[in-house]
User: Fold Phosphomethylpyrimidine synthase from Paracoccus spongiarum.
Amino acid sequence: MTSPKISTGPLPASSKIHLGGSLHDIRVPMRSIALTGEPPLTVYDASGPYTDPDAQIDIARGLPDIRGGWQRLRGEVAPTAARPVQPADNGFATGARLTPAFPVRRDPLRATGGRAITQLAYARAGIVTPEMEFVAIRENEGRIAAHSRDGEGFGATLPDLVTPDFVRAEIAAGRAIIPANINHRELEPMIIGRNFKVKINANIGNSAVTSSMEEEIEKMVWAIRWGADTVMDLSTGRNIHNIRDWIIRNAPVPIGTVPLYQALEKVGGVAEDLGWEIFRDTLIEQAEQGVDYFTIHAGVRLAHIPLTARRVTGIVSRGGSIMAKWCLHHHRESFLYDRFDEICEIMRAFDVSFSLGDGLRPGSIADANDAAQFAELHTLGDLTRIAWERDCQVMIEGPGHVPMHKIKANMDEQLKHCHEAPFYTLGPLTTDIAPGYDHITSAIGAAMIGWFGTAMLCYVTPREHLGLPDRDDVKTGVIAYKLAAHAADLAKGHPGARARDDALSRARFEFRWQDQFNIGLDPDTARAMHDETLPAEAHKVAHFCSMCGPKFCSMKISHDIRAEARRQQGLTDMAERFREGGAIYVPVAGPDAEPVA
Amino acid sequence: MTSPKISTGPLPASSKIHLGGSLHDIRVPMRSIALTGEPPLTVYDASGPYTDPDAQIDIARGLPDIRGGWQRLRGEVAPTAARPVQPADNGFATGARLTPAFPVRRDPLRATGGRAITQLAYARAGIVTPEMEFVAIRENEGRIAAHSRDGEGFGATLPDLVTPDFVRAEIAAGRAIIPANINHRELEPMIIGRNFKVKINANIGNSAVTSSMEEEIEKMVWAIRWGADTVMDLSTGRNIHNIRDWIIRNAPVPIGTVPLYQALEKVGGVAEDLGWEIFRDTLIEQAEQGVDYFTIHAGVRLAHIPLTARRVTGIVSRGGSIMAKWCLHHHRESFLYDRFDEICEIMRAFDVSFSLGDGLRPGSIADANDAAQFAELHTLGDLTRIAWERDCQVMIEGPGHVPMHKIKANMDEQLKHCHEAPFYTLGPLTTDIAPGYDHITSAIGAAMIGWFGTAMLCYVTPREHLGLPDRDDVKTGVIAYKLAAHAADLAKGHPGARARDDALSRARFEFRWQDQFNIGLDPDTARAMHDETLPAEAHKVAHFCSMCGPKFCSMKISHDIRAEARRQQGLTDMAERFREGGAIYVPVAGPDAEPVA
Assistant:
C-alpha cells in the first residue's frame, strides 16, 4: 500500500536525473529544474525517491537496498543474528498501544574479525569507496567547472570540482565524515565537512506528550523534500524502537539519534539508574537497526558541573542534564567517558559516526562562551583523538544561544581544540527575546557560523522553546536553514553556490515569473504569494508585480534604458535620439492592466 | 468616530508609563511589562497612543498636537498660508474615487526669515531642544545604570546612559538625526544614529494595483504596534496627497516619503517630463503636510549609468531607475543634483531630514559592491557636506542584495566617504534564492550590518519581489527586523540591550510561561504556539512543554541538580547525600500530566 499521508511527487518543473560513477556502479540523484528562458538548472537533491515519479513508494516495504551489495563486495562484513527485541525497547507498550514492528526483517550486518569497516579506515588505507565517489559526484551538482570564485573562506579549501580522491583525503584527515551505517542500506550517502557544501539537519521525533509513527515518517519525508540533509530521530516515550525501524527503512538520508534517551526510558526515567550495560545494549540495538550517527555526551565531566552553577539557564541539553545528574549522584565520571573505548569498538563495527554532544551548550545569551561550555569542548577534542585512533568517524556538536560578537570564537576554539573535526551546531540563536521566531534568531547565527567553517547546521523551528514542531514548523525551519547554509556557501566562496542565485536573478530581471518561483527554495509559497494579488496567467509574464505596479517597476525601466542603449552607439549621442524612443508610461486600469507593448 | 479597523489596546501584561523631562515639559512614553516573578520590565515603546487605554483614538481628528508649542516657544517659526491642494496632487481623482481630505485643517508652520530651524542648527548653537531631551530619556528605557557592557562596537561609542547633551553633541557632529518636521506636531521624537539603539523602518503605501486609506493607516498603526520606529509611505497611484495627510495626522512616528513618486504621477508617469518646478512644488506640498524625511536620489549621476550596463539586475531602485531614464533622455545631470542647494533651502525651513537615496543599490548577489553602487555612495558623501553646510540633517541609504562577506565593506565605505552620517540600509539580502522568505535572507544581513554600525534597518517582508505586503506580512517583517536590530545592539555591547534577554531567560528557566510570552517580541504568537499542544492553565506553570515532555526537560533536571546543590556543603560530599534526594521521574499520562510534586 502507498500511504496517502506520505508526500510524494516532484517539485514544480523538476525532474529526477541520475549521474553514474566511473569507479563504482552507482546512480547519484540530482534535481533538474526546467527553465523557460535558459537551459535547465541542476541542483543538489536530498529528497530521495519520494520526488521520483518512477519510484514505487510503500512505507511497509521501505526504500530499495542500494548499499547492501557495496560492503558484500568488500567481504569484510557478514550478517549476524539480530539482538532480540525486548519489551523495554518499546517502553513496554502492548496491544493497541504498541506500534507494529516493521514488516520486513533482515539480519544485521557487522564487521567480521573485529576489524574497522568505517569510511575513515578505508580512506586511511587509500581506498575510494562507492560512498566516497557518490558524494564527490553529488557535491558538484552536475557542474564541470567552477561557476564563480569569490568569498572569504577563513581557511576552508574549496576545490573547483570535488574528486573522489579529494573526498577520501578529507575523510582520512578527519576533516569530513560520511555518516553511513552499514545497516542503513537505503542510504544515499552525503558528506559533512568544512570543505564541502554546508549541510543542515532537521530534528523529528515524538515526545511522551504527542505524535505517532506515520506522522514521524511523513515529518522525515517532508523535511528532506525541502532539503534536510540528515534527520535526527529524537523520539522519547513508548514505541521508539519500532518507530525508529520504520523511519530508517524509509530514509534516504542519514539518521542520527541520542541513544541515551532510549536508555533512560528503559530505566523508567530514573537517571541515577542508568549504567553501562543498558547503554551498551542500546547502542547495539540501534547500530543493528542502521542509525548513522549517535550523539554521545561523553564530554560532560564531573568537574564541569560546578561551572554551570551560576548560569542563568543552567544545563539546557537533555542528554547533558541527564548525565550531569548521574555524575553528581554517583560522584564519578560518566560511563560514557569511562567506557569511551568500548563505545568506539561498537561504532567501528557498524561504521556509526560519533556526534560528540555539547551537553553544556549555553541556553541563553548570558551563558554564551562560558567556562563550562569551553571546558567540555576541550574534552571533546581529547575524545576525538581517541575515536580517530579506533578509525571512528567524528563530528563535534556546538553552539546554542550566542550573540553575534561571540560566534567566531566558537568556531576558532573548535578548530583549534578539536583538530578540524567537522563542527555541527544548533543555530546559534543570536537573541533570547523572540519566542515564536527562533528559526530567524538562529538563522542569523547559523549563516554566520556556517560561513566561519561549521559543516552542518542543526535547524531550529518557530516552535522552539514552546512545543513540539508540527509539519509546517518543520518546513519553515528547513527552508530558513537551507537559505542560511546557502548564504554561508556564497560567503565562503563555494565555486558552485552562486549559479542558483544568478539563475534566479536573471529570471527575475527578465520577468520569467514561473522560473523565479521554480528556482527558489519554496516554489509553492512564492507562487501563492504572487498569485494572491495577481492570479491571471497573463501576469506570469507581466513586467511588474503588485508591489510597485507597472509604472514604477524599476526593472522594466532598466529594460527601457538598455533597449535604448543597444540602439545607440554610445552615451554621448544617446540623449538626442532617445526622444524618438517610446514612452514608459502605461495607463493603469487596475490589476488587469497589461503593461507590455 | 473611532474606526473599528484600527488596532488599539495594550500588548499583553503591558501598561503605558510616561517619564518627565528636567529641562522641558515633556512626557516620554514607555512600555512597562508586568512580570509574575520579578519587578516590571520597562522597554522602548514606538507604538504611540494606540496602546494607551486612556487615549481617545479618532483617526478623523488625528493624534494630539504635542510639539506645536515647542517651536512657538522658540519663536522662530510662524504659520503661513498652505499651498492650495491641486487636482494633480491626488492624481485627478474625483467623486467616489477621491479619498476625502483630512477633516481638520491647520496652517503649516515655516521658519521665519529664512533661518534654519533644524535640530542640527540648534545642536550646533548649543541648544538642547525638547526633542533632544525626549530621545535621551527614551533611549535609556528607564535605566539608571548600565545593565551589561560586553560587545564589539567597531568604533561605536555607547555611553552607560544617554544624556540630553550627548544627543545634542551627536547631532551637531552629524552622527545622528532626529527626523522631526515642524509640521508633524503629533510626533513622538526618536533618534537615528550609530551610538543609539538600532532602529527599524517599515514601508507601507498603496500601489496603483491595490489598497485604500483606512488600510494604510491600519498598516502604519499595526507596524508601530510591533515596533517599527519610522514608517515610509511609498504610495503611488491616485489619492496620495490625501492618504498621506490621514497617515501623518495619525502617526506618532516619523514618516518618510520619496517625493519623486508623486512628482512622476503629476506628469502622468512620463519620466522625461519631470522637471525642477514640479519637483520643488511637490517638496513644499509634502513639507507643509509634515513629512519628516525625504528620500532624494541626487546621487544618480549621468556618468554612473553606464556602470550598470553589465549588471545582472540593472537598476532596482524605483527612484534610481526613474532618474537614470531622465538623465539619459536629457543627457545631463539630474535636477536633484543640479538643484541640491535649493532642495536644502526647503528642507531647512521645515526641518525635513535628507535620506540620500541609493538609486544604484544592487538587486542581486552578482551586482553587490560594484562600481555603480560605490560611485553613487561617494557622491552621497559629497552631498552630505553640502547639506550640512545648510544645517540640514542627513542620513544615507544603502545595501540591497549583498552576500555576507561583502557586507562590512559597505559599512566601512559609508563611514569613510559619508563622514559618519547615519547609515540606513535595506536588508541586505544575503542570497537571491528564497522568494517568500526574504524577511529571513535579509534579517541575516540586517543584523550583521546593524552590528557593524548601521543606524536604521529598512525591513523586508516575506512578500518582497512577489507583491504588495499585507497586514500579516507587515507584522512578520517588523518582528524579523526588531530581532535583527536587537541582535545588533547585543553584539555592539549596548549597555541596556541584554536586560530584556536576561529577563526572558530567567522566566524561561523558572517556567514562568506567561512572563516568557509577555517579554517576547510577539506574545500573541508565542502563547498561541504553546497552547496549541498544552492549552490547560496548569501548564502555564508546568515544568515542561510538549517539545521534550516532563521526563526530558533539561531545565527541570537542572533545578533538581541545583536544589540538591543548595542542600549540600559542596560537591565533594554531595554524591553520597544526593541519594537521599527525590527521583526526577514523573509518570507520563499524556498532555495533562502534572510533573510538579
